[in-house]
Amino acid sequence: MNKFECYKSFNETFTYSNDDGEEVVISNLWRYAELLYPDDQWPVVDSDGNYCNIELPEEFEYSDLYVNNVDVFVNDEDLREKIESYDDENFGEFLEDLGFTNIETEYDIFFNGEDSIKISKI
Questions:
Q1: What is the full DSSP assignment across 48-97?
Q2: Of 98, 109, 87, 107, nearest in space to 24 by CA
Q3: CA distance 87 to 66
Q4: What's the pTM value of the predicted model, to 2 decimals?
């Protein structure tokens, strides 16, 4: 197996929507992620020292939240203020209680410059 260790490069995005078509988008950039790939998947090093076009594996773990961002696209001012002022770990459950449903979850690997991604073989 090939182990890819990402530093400040692994992003997770959740999109929630309600019956009115309003959305809340939560983005989490993680300080550390470990991605496991089969031996035949090894990216080519670019001329700047970065590894590019790394596909997301089926197995990965991440930890240590670096940056969290919440974008609220809600017309009702009271509801928008309620969402924007919520400060608890169970944010997804809070949105579901308000009638929102998780309609999409995306994972991305960002390339933030040289040495943002380290690779080792295990």
A1: TS-B-SPPPPSEEEEEEEEEEEEEEE-S-HHHHHHHHH--SS-HHHHHHH
A2: 98
A3: 17
A4: 0.79
111: helix, strand or coil: coil
pLDDT of residue 81: 96
Site of tokens 């690997």: 109
Amino acid at residue number 94: F
| Residue 101: half-sphere exposure toward Cβ, Cα within 13 Å | 5
Phi, psi of 98 (to 5 degrees): -90, 5
Q: What is the pLDDT of residues 27-76, one digit of tens each?
A: 999 988 888 888 777 666 777 766 666 777 878 999 999 999 999 999 99
Instruction: Tell me what the mean pLDDT of segment 1-18 comes to.
Output: 87
8 Å CB contact between 91 and 3? no
